Amino acid sequence: MKKRTTIYMDEELHKKVRMLAVRENTTMAKIFVHALRRYLAEIQEDPRQEKFAQILTNH
What we know:
The chain has 59 residues and is an all-alpha fold. The chain contains three helices and no strands. The protein has one domain.
């Protein structure tokens, strides 16, 4: 099951992500999901982010 969310960003960031999506023949949503998954995986391995990682894994 997928959930929907709204993300607000400045115009410059929006333009960059939109252009990346066109160049990679994908969607902005897929780019964001991929980036978030990589970020979450990285912070779980970073001892400095231990508390934040615990919060994420408990929910």
